[in-house]
Design a protein that fits this description.
mainly beta; 98 residues; single chain; 64% strand; 0% helix
């Protein structure tokens, strides 16, 4: 089964995005710290999803809270989920997704 989730930053000025397609997690940011990893864990929780990927060079942990409406702060657009992303060499990022 292919599951696609597009996650983006809370404010477009933050300049990062995560896309989960099939078995891959793609991360990009305006600093050029772009990478794609295989999904090592995708777990349904009481509040949403936990998705993790890692390699010798990169780690990413994604926490999706479903049904918690989120706004990107730059437009009138609302998203269905809130997202916290922990990225090696970048830190913790908060955003919206769905």
């Amino acid at each position: 089964m292919t599951r696609t989730i597009l996650l983006s930053s809370l404010a477009m000025l933050a300049g990062w995005a995560v896309e989960i397609t099939g078995e891959d997690i793609a991360f990009s940011n305006q600093e050029g710290n772009d990478f794609t990893l295989g999904i090592h864990q995708m777990k349904k929780t009481d509040t949403g999803w936990v998705i993790k990927g890692f390699s010798d060079r990169h780690n990413i942990n994604i926490y999706v809270t479903s049904g918690e409406q989120c706004s990107d702060g730059m437009s009138d657009r609302s998203y269905a989920d809130t997202v916290k992303v922990e990225v090696s060499d970048t830190g913790t990022l908060n955003g919206c997704g769905g």
